[in-house]
Amino acid sequence: MNRVTLVLTTALAPIAWGTTYLVTTELLPAGHPLFAGLLRSLPAGLLAVAISRRLPHGSWWWKSFALGALNIAAFFPLLFLAAERLPGGVAAAVAGAQPLIVLALGALVLHERIRPITAVAALAGAGGVALVVLGPAAELDLWGVLAALGGVTATGVGMILTKRWGRPAGVGPVAYAGWQLSAGGLMLLPLTLFAEGVPQEIDGGAALGYLWLATAGGIVAYTLWFRGIQQLPVIAPGLLALLSPIVATVLGLAVAGERFTALQALGFVLTLGALVLGQVVTRPKAQTDRRPQESLDDVLSAPR
């Protein structure tokens, strides 16, 4: 798989995640972020493990739970909480801070050199986020912003650890995603049952929303995302995460009737420019996973 194809398929993940905010506010029952995270992770994770027929082994048991805690158990509830308390474009735009987090952690943990042009792209993305968030005060909520920042910080750390630990030999991306989704879902299960409970009513729209989040936003997105993290320079997927606020913003404007000020529109343009600049200037480095690249179809059809 060439770099362009890898970038494009990896980009499908944040594009799918950008729909989360609209789905949450328009389809899902309010006040149940833990339940939403549980249904998005555990069924999809168990299905992925069943399809791949691979379980973690050795140290990968605790590594899977550590990654599942960061990428799933912490991120999902914070994501849905932010989506409930903030307008979709504002909530997703906070994800634009992730490139700065990934850039700093990549230098500290992975000892990757920070290129000036990459730092400019990350700073431009963060600046664009700040401008987008500076909307009318009535549309902002402190806890919503903190939840969104906490979510992207957790996934930023998870991204760095995913890059550092790689993927076990002989384990495909579907199984790898399934381990983390299952681990995160198992952590959310007792919290959901004892702290939040199940919504009193789940109508057809909510059922459709949960199904979309578990499939397109769950097993498919995370399979492509984790593969991209392991094969691209760490800042590249970090900048691709900016697609999430872009998609959420467009959906908010087109479907939910949200309105942006001129200052927020400038922030949107800066965010988009940072995404494009970052993908142009990043170059592939030595790959940590040197096995031939495998497509999702290859993984699902491979003999076990």
TrEMBL record:
Q: Where does it live in the cell?
A: Membrane
User: Cross-referenced Gene3D superfamilies, in alphabetical order?
Assistant: 1.10.3730.20
User: So which domain of life are we looking at?
Assistant: Bacteria
Q: Which residues cross the membrane?
A: 34-52, 64-83, 89-110, 117-136, 142-162, 174-195, 207-225, 232-256, 262-281
One cellular component term from this protein's GO annotations in UniProt: membrane
The chain positions of domain EamA read 7-133, 142-277
Against InterPro entries, the record matches this protein to: AA-Vitamin_Transporters, EamA_dom, EmrE-like
- What keywords would UniProt list here? Membrane, Transmembrane, Transmembrane helix
Major location, coarse class? membrane
Topological type in the membrane: Multi-pass membrane protein
Q: Return the similarity comment.
A: Belongs to the EamA transporter family.
Q: Quote the protein name from its UniProt record.
A: Putative inner membrane transporter YicL
